[in-house]
What we know:
mainly alpha, 75% helix, disordered N terminus
Amino acid sequence: MGDNPDKTKPAYKREDSSGSSAAGHLDSTGFSMAKHIDRLFPSASSLDNVDVAAANTGHRLHAVKQEIRRQLRAQSDSHQQQTQSIEATKAAIGELYTRISEMKAKAQTSERMVFDITQDIKALDFAKRNLSQATATMRRLQLLVSGVGQLRQFKEQKKYGEAARLLPAIAGLREGFAEHMGVRAIARLDDEAAGLQRSLGSMAFQEVQRGFDAQGLLVGDAELMHQACLCCAGTEEQTRVKDLYCELQLRAYVAIFQIGDDVSQLENVSRRYAWLRRILRNYAEEHAPAFPDAWRMGEELSRRFAHTTRDHLSETMATRDIDVGHLTAALADTLAFEAQCDKKFGIVRRNGAAVYESSGAPAESFVGSVSCAFEPYMAVFISGEQAKFEALVRRFRSEPGDDDPSLNVLASSTDLLYQFRESLRQCAALSTGQAMADLAQVFGQSLSNYARSVLVHALPRISSTTTAPLDALRRACLVANTADYCASAAAQLEQKIIEKVDGPLREQVTFAASREALLSAINSSIGALVGGVDAMCAPALAALTDAP
């Protein structure tokens, strides 16, 4: 009995340790009861401790139950707390939703208030704008009414200067009421203003008309006429005033230079331009104060004179025989006159366009205003030049003349080319149009004629009986050099004419035919040289062949 406690105590400890180890197996998902019992009672002797194992298992069961009850209580408390938290969260969310709904309602209310305020502001802005426009329109209308009244008063009192200063302001006010012509009062006021302006223009024209007598002499007050001209500036009355003045001044010109009279012939064309210079001096000294500077009345008078002179000269040349000398002299005087007019009135060319030098505004050049009348009759000049060159070539053929030993070419070639240069210089001063292109053709024909009639004709015929054969060979060389020199000069002359002639006519300028004729002369010269050398060597070669 005394040994039992000693024997059971270690077994109990093993159970305790085994029980703690078994707890881990009991918690395992792969728990096996058989293995668990085998682990508790590994041997038969361990069955003696079955009571202890049972007690331990009971304690373990009790502990597990206690733990389960504790866990259940804890879970119940946690679930209650979660429920309470969920309810609190729901309540907070509900309160938040309520507040958001209130804020949204307030925002919509504020938006409606802002929209209403914006609409009110827009309405006020439209009202302000309309009121400002109405005020400005009424102010302009008041100014227009006042201006028309003043204009009516100035018209009655013939105060042209004041009326001229008032007219631009009234015109600007009338433009502002262009959209309100549907209002009868405004339409009547506009018609009255237009009528006053027309009436003032008519009165201004009559004032200028009274200011000059039938001979175009100034008999009125120049200052009053100047103010009257300002009243009709920019209207059709301005054109009427210009037509009246130019007609009065050119009336004497038409009477003096009547078509058919000797004074109107080409040889007297310089007297026409002298007459205009006298009229322009008279205008500058007496008539210029009567017209506004912007009208450029002196230029207008010169332009009308140019047109009248052009028509006179065209008719004169069409009905009379034309002398070449008179034609070229008249054309030279005309070109000088046109250049003087451009210089006098400050007209220059910039970037290919005529402008006023002072302002850069577009202008109409006088160049060609009269000289264009000569263009159809430049054929007379060309015919004269052609006849001159033909006579020159005939003279060179019939009178070869003595050649300068210091020259390598025939003297006739230098004379011919000099005449070409002089003729081209004269033509360039007269016209760079079709006449120059026609003159180039004359040059080409004359060179071809010179090559055939003079150069080829001058070639010697060398034979065994020719006296001074070396001189004959030198003559042939001289002809070849002359033809080559003329061909080179023809190319240079062609290029020079192309640079001077008007653009559309440049394709007509060519010296191809004349160069071919000169090359043919060179070939003939070389043939003559070869034939001459052969003829000179023939007797010596024959003697060699006859030698034993």
